[in-house]
Amino acid sequence: ELHRIPHPPRRIPLMGDVIGANVRTPVQDSMRVARELGPIFRRKAFGKEIVFVGGAGLASDMADESRFAKHVGLGVANLRPVAGDGLFTAYNHEPNWQLAHDILAPGFNRDAMAGYHRLMLDVAGRLTERWDERERTGRAVDVPGDMTKLTLETIARTGFGYDFGSFERERPHPFVTAMVGTLAFAQRRNTVPAALAPFVLREATRRNDADMAYLNRTVDEVVAARRAEGGSGELRDLLDRMLEVAHPETGERLTAENIRRQVITFLVAGHETTSGALSFALHYLARNPEVLARAQDEVDRVWAGKDEPAYEDVARLRYLRRVLDESLRLWPTAPAFAREARHDTVLGGEHPMRRGAWALVLTMTVHRDPEAWGEDAEVFDPDRFDPKAVRARPAHVFKPFGTGARACIGRQFALHEATLVLGLLLRRYDLRADPAYRLRVVERLTLMPEGLRLNVARR
Ligand code: HEM
């Protein structure tokens, strides 16, 4: 059925359409192709035919859980050596997915989240100390760098009671360097044919092995430290749940090896994407003075008279939440996810798919489809997430956290953390964009604004 799906005209054996494409920015590149080829297209890369879905209509059809499920392929599959059958990289049929999901999902319910709030405030306090110091010395802040420190500390402390000391270091913690290395390697492996990998990626593979060994070693230390403390009987964080909770029905527990995979999974999945989301939001806030003023008014009003916002005060920042949503619309920091047909089906009533056939949903392209978002879809406008506007849109066209049973387990965590931090920052600072800055987005499986610096001034 593939012949009915358009593809770029140029076909070069082996290298396929990847020639001429920028291998460092595959997502942004695919978005450009989508503009020419429409809501569904295929690109050939190394003998693999990949179908891309960028149209909002087709993407919402793929959200139908009775016909489609998550597909573990490409970038996700390349993370298997690091993340194994951890939640993010597990195949749907692997028993450890359901087991870990059932054990860990309560770690994200309201009560658990309220328990993380204190730690989130503490980490945010480290950030504002740093920004105050930057202001005093007249230096700009490195937004992605600082947001990555913040989100890594937050997931490490709330999830595992571990302190990477990110704010005390000038260079990133070696764990971050190793993690970014394995992510970049996973992305690169997508673009090199398997047969050539042993030659082309020899040096990179060696480095990657060392990075992975380092990640494993660090995690083993974290787990060992907790085991040495002995169980407290109290479930304070994700690690307590991993070590102490048995499945409510089967009584099964996570194995030591699986726990290692989950810890790495959460440290990776739990911070890069949130860091990117915060960075893009700060970029847009600094660039849109009227949006910034409105968001600041809201924070001043809703948090008036409080030294520190309580857990419930965060969700009350409705407008700020729209700013965040709108940033995630234009730059969904986990920019694609794959879906496969559960059985033979017809996508969008038009494209037959066999059981197991899959396509990559280009979230960023779906989020900018004029059919769902209007002719001004490229324009930043938080009012799109006004409840009235949301109701007027078709369902399933906003998917920064993926879809269905395998959607992001950390969604509420990320939204609480990001809204809290943005609220604290806007209450404290005015943001001044560098007029010379042009948004450039780097891709390493996730999206991040490159070289974004802002000047901050205490209000
Ligand atoms: C899954 C996005 C934050 C943990 C996913 C998926 C997306 C996503 C798109 C589905 C991937 C797929 O279908 O293949 C994001 C974004 C975030 C964010 C944009 C921040 C703005 C977090 C946080 C955590 C987390 C803070 C942990 C605390 C996970 C896990 C999965 C996942 C464990 C796998 C779930 C499963 O398959 O059962 N995320 N995420 N994420 N995310 Fe997030």
UniProtKB/TrEMBL annotation:
UniProt source species: Streptomyces luteolus
Annotated Gene3D superfamilies: Cytochrome P450 (1.10.630.10)
PANTHER family in the record: BIFUNCTIONAL ALBAFLAVENONE MONOOXYGENASE_TERPENE SYNTHASE (PTHR24291:SF50), CYTOCHROME P450 FAMILY 4 (PTHR24291)
Ranges that cross the membrane: none
InterPro entries linked to this entry: Cyt_P450, Cyt_P450_CS, Cyt_P450_E_grp-I, Cyt_P450_sf, Cytochrome_P450_Monoox
Coiled coil: none
Keyword Oxidoreductase annotated: yes
Alphabetical UniProt keywords: Heme, Iron, Metal-binding, Monooxygenase, Oxidoreductase
Family in the record: Belongs to the cytochrome P450 family.
Presence of the UniProt keyword Nuclease in the record: no
Protein name: Cytochrome P450
Origin: domain of life: Bacteria
